[in-house]
Amino acid sequence: MKSSFLEAALKRSEKFQLGTKYRFTPPAGLKDLIIQYLDKKKGPPHELAVDLGCGTGQNTRLLAPHFKEVVGMDISESQLEEARAVPGFSNITYKTGRAEKLPFPDDSVDLLTAASAAHWFDVPMFLAEANRVLKPGGCMALLGFADNYPKFTYKDCGDKLSSIYQEVKEVLKPYTERPVFESENKLEGLFQAIPFPDKERIEDFPLKWTISVEDLMGFISSWSMFQTYRAKDPTGAEHLLVNTEKRFLQEMGVASPKAEVVRNWEYFCVLASKPL
Ligand SMILES: C[S@@+](CC[C@H](N)C(=O)[O-])C[C@H]1O[C@@H](n2cnc3c(N)ncnc32)[C@H](O)[C@@H]1O
After folding, report:
1. For the Methyltransferase type domain, which residue ranges apply (predicted)?
2. 56 membership: H or E segment, kind and range
């Protein structure tokens, strides 16, 4: 029998699947900072990294050159299928499983990561498991991007585009689940709850992202809150997307939704090391 927690997580994972086209690979520079942190706190060898909530494996693959073995774990088998279909990473294994119940022995993992996923975890259960499986000196790195202050650039209308985007987020606020706010808050609650004294948070690792207006609408439609809204009001949701695209194109003075804008993101990363 499935626990109610697992059932709720699996139900959410139906929503996550819709978003796979709009998944981002975290910045390589941030990954380098994570590896440097691990080297400072634990040092070599780098035997095992586990990427939790790995989805289709973007972050998992970034880790592959740095470890003897990398395991990507997710509650969604269909996302893991997509991850497994990417060739060329012989040291990666993908497993179905939950961040709250890890199939690893005590003191066996060098690095635990989660990219845009830790806000969905049950924090006390996950932290207990992290404490159990990490080697002494082993580290966790929980990264993601906050979407609080969007900054678009396009000729002289970047500010207008940013405020249109912000309006969309306001419309969707009533449909936004608490974990999404925790992510926007750069995992503040989870950070405070980490029992290791050695912890820090990178708050604003910059990334520039060029995206077409069409794909930006696709990205919005992949948000869990958009899908909740669409389930309740399909016409309203459709109208929101169509209207937002139209307003973007009008401000930009272009006709084609393939026109591209630049978006500045800020990644964050919670880092912590288990005491030696
Ligand atoms: C927004 S996606 C991020 C996927 C990927 N890490 C990325 O950066 O694109 C969140 C992922 O977390 C997974 N997930 C949610 N709750 C989980 C849990 N408790 N344990 C493991 N995976 C979970 C979902 O199935 C989904 O694939």
Report:
1. 50-141
2. none
Instruction: Indicate if ligand 1 lies below 6 Å from the C-beta of 116.
Output: yes
Element of type H or E holding 83: helix 77-84
Is the separation of the CB atoms in 118 and 187 below 8 Å?
yes
Domain boundaries, the chain: 4-273
For 63-100, the pLDDT digits (tens) are 999 999 999 999 999 999 999 999 999 999 999 999 99
190 three-class SS: helix
Omega within 30 of 0 (cis) for the link into 45: yes
Cα(75)–Cα(6) distance, integer angstroms:
8
Separation CA 126–CA 119 (nearest Å): 11
Q: Is the CB of 183 under 6 A from ligand 1?
A: no
Rounded to the nearest angstrom, the distance between the alpha carbon of 70 and the centre of ligand 1 is 16
Would the CB of 52 count as within 6 Å of ligand 1?
Answer: yes
pLDDT-derived band at 20 (thresholds 50, 70, 90) equals: low
| Spatial CB neighbours of 40, under 8 Å, sequence gap ≥ 6 | none
Distance CA 63, CA 93 (A): 12
Task: Report the distance separating Cα 68 and Cα 103, nearest Å.
Answer: 18
Give the right CATH number for 4-273 from 3.40.50.150, 3.20.20.140, 3.40.50.300, 3.30.870.10. 3.40.50.150
The CA-based dihedral angle spanning residues 246, 250, 254, 257, taken in that order and rounded to the nearest 10 degrees? -20
Q: What is the pLDDT of residues 50-71, one digit of tens each?
A: 999 999 999 999 999 999 999 9
Q: Which amino acid is at 250?
A: Q
